Structures are given as C-alpha cells and as structure tokens.
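Look over this entry.
=====
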Amino acid sequence: MGALRTPREKWIDAGLGALATGGVDSVRIEVLAKTLGVTKGGFYGYFADREALLTAMLETWEQEAVDDVLAEVEQADGNALDKAQLAGRLTFSGDRLLPIDLAIRDWARRDAAVAERLRRVDNRRMDLLRDAIGTVCSDPDEVEARSLLAFCTAIGSHFLAADHPGRTREEVIARAGDLILKRSNRPEGL
C-alpha cells in the first residue's frame, strides 16, 4: 500500500498560515513541507509551482472571507445592520481571517493582481455595508461616507496604538459603530 499524500487543503492552509505570520515572501514550498512534516514532492501533485499555490491561497481566502461569511450572515437573525456588524466581527476579530486579510492588504501593495482581487473582495464587503446603512439613511452620499467609515474603522483599528483613557478599545469601537450605523443605544459616557 502506498503512502498517503498530504491533502491539497493542508498545503493551502499551511501557506495561509505562513502568509499571515510572515507575509507572502515566507510562503516557500520547502518551509511548508517542513511545517507539514512531509517532503516537497507531494506538493507538485497538486500545484505546478509556487504561483499556483498562491492563487489557490487567494481563492481560499476569498471563499472564507466573503462567501462563507456572507452565507453565515444570511442565516443569522437580526436586521441588516445586525448582519453587517456580524460580518465585521467574523472577518476582522478572529484568529484566522484577520491576520490573513491584513497580510493580503500588504501583499496587494506590491502585486497588481492581488490588488485587483482585494478590490473585488472589498467591493463586496462595501456593498453589504451600503445595503445595511441604506436601511437607516436615504442620502446616498451619507450612505457611502458611513460605509467607508465603518470599513476603515474595522481595518484601521488594528493599526492604531493609541490609548482610550477610561475606556477599552472594544468600547470605543462599539460606540464608533453605533455612531456610524446611527444607533443610539449606548450610554452617554461612551
């Protein structure tokens, strides 16, 4: 009986892990094989080269970060604003998607094809925000501005190192979300 091959998904997952922790330059076949505890020969049964792996990684990220998130959001209870907030939490507050998303944003700064894929993903995310915010705001310019602010808050909060005297980062982000989404259910002090 022959040896079992390492599944294709394991190579992709290891690649996404390397991307998330070290950027695209850390995605190396030899390193991934060592991480998986296998020889690199099995890699070539699934991928022609490193570029094919990188493409598969981007496809997997897009599936998980948009299609899977939107499917989960669609099944959730709540109104459009609740669902938009859930999409943000699923995408930007976990241990899996957030580090990959941030690494892809860095990679997109140097690779036009990755930048185009990121643009497609971000446009789908913005569409969700526009639809949600459009339920509480009728001015298209304000909907666009609030959608941009919501998205920038979700991404930018991970780069900000400022303190928030008397408040936690989570409290401030929640209040920013309420302001952007025109919700007024937070206490006066926040």
